[in-house]
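Researcher: Here's a chain I'd like modeled. Treat it as a single chain, no partners, no ligands.
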Amino acid sequence: MSHTSTSLLGVLLLSSALATAACGGAPEDAAPDAGTPLEVETTTAARAALPQALEGGGLVQATLTATVASRLLADVRTVHVTAGDQVRRGQPLVTLDDRDLAASRAQADASATAVTQSRAAAHAERAAAVAALSLAEVTHGRIAGLHEKRAATTQELDQARATLTAAEARLAAIDARLTEVAAAITAAEAARDGAAIGLSHTVLRAPFDGIVGLVSVDPGNQVAPGTPVARIESPGRRVDISLDAARAAGVAVGDAAEVWLDDRPDPIPGAVTEIARTVEAGLQSVTLKIALASGTEAAVGRFARVRVAGAPREALAVPDTAIVRRGQLTAVFVVDADQRARFRLVSAGGALGGRTEILAGLEAGETVLVAPPAHLVDGAPVTTRGGRR
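Model: Modeled as a single isolated chain. Structure tokens:
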């Protein structure tokens, strides 16, 4: 055979193979099996409301992150933790020099004690003033009666009236003093409480259970109000993604999500925990916060791909298990009128919720094998037991 004839035959064979694949045929080794029909499970391809698969990318971050900062101007005395330590809520992280504040607290305590004693003394004086006023009132009443009977002189009556007035004035002065003492006690207690609060700020504690992500001070460093000393991260992980506002309209808090990391073949389950309803100016997008399943170990800062279900739309779909992938080909097995499995090339869309959308190559109402065996070939006789949608 000539070289030209050989080339022509090769072209004809290649064209025949491509035509067979375009019509839904299997590769050359997929010859019909005329043996016993294979029992298979089938479903009917039908159009149904499928959720849209919305995808976005973001960085893994801690569910909660807190930067612990100093409220005082003081020297660092002790650093109790290092990066990577697990801490409990309230556990000390850093202790500052508290000598000045301890002295202020002692002074405030002394002042509070002094004004409390002054109040006790003022109450004692008031009791004496009340007794003196009672005696002055009785004496004035007796002298006034005697004066009416001309048994007491006018001078004696004037003296009794003066004594009564002085007793009343003394009692009023003591009451005024008690008011001042009460105000002084309030101020002293406020100063004592302020000193106690200031003293409590010398021990910086973990705001929640978590992991120390960073310690930014060493013993001997001086810190000012607002100086960060440590960062605490919660064990939980989340990913924030930005989506077009119109497409994300069907997403709700609590919706399930799938999160992919580069080093994991399978998705990590997650859930939408928060939706930023405020649309960013000029971008028309919203932010979704996706919490990863509890116990997920993922390094903060890693890139992750997230898929969530959007508003449903009508589409032709089959179960994920019906999809057959052979190299670069995507196909399904369809049962024809002769009860034979036919290898059908299809164009598949997104997969979500256990179903895969079929964009082309399949019509609604056709019978599709749900989980075709790996050894199944085109044209093999089958008997069905399905009907699952």
